[in-house]
Design goal:
The chain is of the alpha+beta class. It is about 25% helix and about 25% strand. Strand 6 and strand 7 form a beta hairpin. The radius of gyration is 20 Å and the shape is globular.
């Protein structure tokens, strides 16, 4: 009888731990990882992810052991199910699992978490108008992969907004200027953040993803929004690896290393970032076989804290100098579209 009671009590406690709004405060880790075309048989996508590469992905995620995982570039249903089995084989259990689809039906973003969010509000309905190449026509198109938005509550008082994004790649698009597409997606993403901050001025917002652009690009400038007051900006957390290197992407064709994966935090979240535990996950014997990206891991202390030295914010997170107006052009010429909610 006592054993049955103990098992029932344990089951009840586990159930309560997964309920939204019943999470215990402490350090929570969030990982974002572009898996590099996680495609398997049955989805009609190429190239197929090789078994050895998949196992390297699983071991890399295990090395970071995140509480919340934003997985990018997963194929269709068969690929998603295969990826979840991979996590299980590596001892990673995520009771909450969701995947979303934008205009690109081949590559998806998934959110997998040890906690059930209080709210899950994916946005795959956002559209913008853009001029088609060599025409005077403007088409209305959707964000390629959509945006994930989940709100976690810890001890009923600490709210953490986690937003996952995979902006338009730098691959040539025959119909539209790919730089414009990425910039308008970034603008819509910042509109999302602005909407959160207008409703919750002290919101803890963490934006993570493969943003497919460099530090000084208009894409990243739009998201940072350095011209705004501190409370409306997003701050580049810039996680390093253990050698204090910051690159997240390797283009093997010409052996080029760049930083195109980002973690951006709202003003209120900054004092809760555990910088000692925030880093790029690098497993020397695995990284190049797993993906062309390295995962970034952010550690958050889920207890509301006030910045001790708010006057030093521009020293810790310097604003980028403005781009001269004559240089604000896309690769195909002047701005050719309009981002809309």
């Amino acid at each position: 009888m006592r054993r049955i009671y103990s098992n029932c009590l344990l089951s009840s406690l586990l159930f309560l731990a997964l309920l939204p709004g019943r999470l215990s405060a402490g350090d929570v880790s969030v990982m974002c990882y572009n898996l590099c075309n996680y495609f398997v048989e049955g989805d009609g996508l190429k190239p197929l992810k090789q078994d050895f590469s998949k196992e390297c992905v699983g071991k890399t995620i295990k090395a970071g052991n995140p509480d919340i995982l934003i997985a990018i570039e997963i194929g269709r249903e068969n690929s998603y199910e295969d990826f979840k089995r991979l996590l299980k084989r590596n001892g990673l259990d995520y009771p909450f699992q969701r995947i979303i689809e934008g205009d690109d039906s081949s590559r998806h973003i998934a959110l997998l978490s040890r906690f059930t969010p209080k709210e899950f509000n994916p946005r795959n309905d956002l559209k913008y108008k853009i001029k088609a190449k060599n025409t005077d026509r403007h088409d209305e198109i959707g964000v390629q992969r959509g945006f994930i938005h989940a709100v976690f509550e810890f001890d009923g008082s600490y709210r953490l907004h986690v937003i996952g994004a995979h902006l338009k790649s730098r691959v040539f698009n025959s119909r539209y200027n790919q730089t414009d597409m990425r910039r308008y997606e970034a603008r819509l993403l910042k509109y999302m953040v602005n909407e959160i901050l207008s409703k919750e001025p002290d919101a803890n917002v963490l934006v993570m993803g493969d943003l497919n652009d460099t530090y000084d690009s208009e894409t990243i400038r739009l998201l940072r929004d350095d011209a705004k007051k501190n409370e409306m900006r997003l701050y580049d957390l810039r996680p390093p690896d253990k050698w204090n290197l910051y690159w997240t992407h390797w283009w093997n064709q010409n052996d080029a290393y760049s930083r195109i994966d980002y973690a951006l935090a709202s003003y209120a979240l900054l004092p809760e970032i555990d910088k000692e535990s925030t880093h790029i996950v690098h497993v020397p014997e695995l990284w190049m076989f797993a993906s062309d990206h390295r995962p970034i891991l952010i550690s958050v202390n889920t207890k509301n804290t006030v910045l001790s030295t708010p006057g030093d914010i521009d020293k810790s997170y310097p604003r980028l100098p403005e781009i001269p107006a004559e240089e604000k052009t896309a690769e195909g010429g002047a701005e050719t579209g309009e981002a809309r909610k």
